[in-house]
Design goal:
It holds the Pfam family P2X_receptor. It contains 15 helices and 16 strands. By secondary structure, the chain is of the alpha+beta class. The chain has 2 domains: about 80 residues, no CATH class; about 270 residues, atp-gated p2x4 ion channel fold (Sandwich), CATH 2.60.490. The strands form 2 sheets. Strands 1, 3, 4, 5, 7, 8, 9, 10, 11, 13, 14, 15 and 16 form a 13-stranded mixed β-sheet that branches. Helix 2 runs antiparallel to helix 8 and helix 8 crosses helix 9. The longest helix is centred in the N-terminal third of the chain and has 24 residues.
């Protein structure tokens, strides 16, 4: 079975057909308007007109302070193994063995076990034990476990001089004191907002409207007494959806009745930076916290207790608590025309969706779809035949008849002359009327005169 190559390799081109039917026009323009509005909204809210790059890790410094109203005695103190709590200040809550300023994290003690131990005095140096006999011996059964009183109401402060960020290659850089900071919970809802002291009323009202829904009770304007971002440990835990430190621990090594206050856990604090929506030239950041389930956190340290414990007296302090790890991420951007142009070109492709929907309705859904197809889809003539005719016209007159005979009959060129002589015998034509012009005569006779043998014409 043969195939026509012109049908097999046909080319489809677009043709404009104006369909006068409001049932197609109204949906089309509605789709176009909605798509264009979505494109503009996406470019504005997602800041697709900015050339962005990832931030580099800046520096974060976190400090902790006891409650300003004083430390109270909570009810959970009676449930501690020792039957009471220890009332620590800021320096005692954070172990000295951890570097809170270097990596930006912090360890907050919630439970501590104190074990008194001694070292033989036979020439042993506690700071530099020179033999196995000088090692500290601290049996676990000698330890006493306490909870830290009122730790939930301690306040953590992220200080602005050490909370900085910048881009990798551009010159965009800022410190937290000049940026808007938003604390968001696990559902993405804004819990509180920190704003700079010097901020225009217009931008401040936009922040209150967009981030807080008009609730100014959760708005904190940074001031001289507390220039950093301050929140209590309880508020920080609430951001991570930790309702209480008395929740049962999910650690594989924890007891069945052991709480996260006893076992400790890891809390991941993420600071994400970006350009503000109300002012793309200004930078901002969001806080989010994640409770890592199934984790434990502890810090063990050996402390020399001094003369009260004897010249060789030491104390082993086994701390469990909240290991606060800080991660800085995000993207900073500046206006770039090519970024805007690229976003527009990529987004305009969505307009094609409106066309495809209406085209589908036109060809497959509408009651008059068969009529629409006749206007929309049109098949041209076979251009191979047209080219054959053009070539035939360019051939010499005798050969032209042979070529037409070959096309019409499919005869081979070898037998074409004999067949042609048999089929094209000379014949006479009626006498031409005197009124016929030369062109009419040629049209009447066609090419027969040219097809006669040369000796006849002579």
């Amino acid at each position: 079975m043969g195939y026509d190559l012109d049908d097999l390799f046909c080319y489809d081109t677009f043709k404009i057909v104006r369909v006068r039917d409001r049932r197609l026009g109204i949906p089309y323009y509605l789709f176009m308007i909605c798509t264009a509005a979505y494109i503009i909204y996406s470019i504005a809210t997602d800041q697709l007109y900015l050339r962005k790059e990832d931030v580099t890790n800046g520096s974060v410094r976190i400090t902790i302070q006891p409650p300003a109203a004083g430390v109270t005695t909570p009810a959970y103190c009676g449930r501690s193994p020792a039957g009471s709590c220890l009332f620590f200040d800021a320096t005692q809550v954070v172990p000295a063995s951890t570097d809170e300023n270097g990596g930006g994290g912090m360890f907050i003690t919630t439970r501590i076990t104190l074990t008194n131990a001694t070292v033989p005095a036979n020439g042993c140096d506690i700071q530099a034990p020179s033999s196995a006999g000088c090692m500290v011996s601290a049996p676990k059964e000698n330890g006493i476990t306490y909870f830290v009183a009122d730790i939930e109401n301690f306040t953590a402060r992220i200080n602005p001089p050490k909370h900085t960020v910048r881009g990798k290659s551009n010159a965009i850089a800022s410190r937290s004191e000049d940026m808007v900071g938003v604390v968001k919970d696990t559902a993405g809802k804004s819990k509180r907002v920190y704003v700079p002291t010097l901020m225009s009323d217009t931008n401040l009202n936009i922040v209150i409207r967009d981030e807080l829904g008009g609730d100014t009770s959760r708005l904190h304007i940074r001031g001289a007494p507390a220039p950093g971002d301050v929140m209590t440990v309880k508020d920080l835990l609430a951001v991570a959806n930790v309702t209480s430190l008395d929740m049962l621990s999910e650690s594989p090594t924890a007891r069945s009745d052991e709480t996260i206050r006893e076992s400790g856990f890891v809390l991941l604090l993420t600071i994400e930076y970006g350009n503000r929506v109300e002012n793309s030239s200004a930078l901002g950041y969001t806080y989010s916290a994640t409770y890592i389930k199934g984790t434990e956190a502890k810090v063990a340290e050996t402390v020399y207790v001094g003369p009260s414990g004897g010249p060789t007296g030491v104390q082993v302090r086994n701390r469990h608590g909240i290991r606060l790890a800080v991660v800085q991420k995000g993207q900073l951007g500046s206006f770039d025309f090519m970024a805007l142009l690229t976003s527009i070109v990529a987004s305009v492709a969505l307009l094609r969706v409106s066309v495809l929907v209406v085209e589908f309705m036109l060809v497959w859904v509408m009651p008059e779809k068969s009529v629409y197809r006749q206007y929309k889809i049109e098949t041209t003539a076979d251009f191979s035949d047209l080219r054959d005719e053009e070539r035939a016209k360019s051939l010499p007159r005798p050969a032209m008849a042979d070529h037409r005979w070959q096309v019409l009959t499919g005869a081979k060129p070898a037998v074409l002359p004999a067949v042609h002589r048999q089929q094209h015998q000379p014949r006479t034509h009626p006498v031409l009327s005197s009124e016929m012009t030369v062109k009419q005569s040629i049209a009447f006779h066609g090419d027969d005169a040219d097809n006669e043998p040369r000796d006849k014409r002579a």
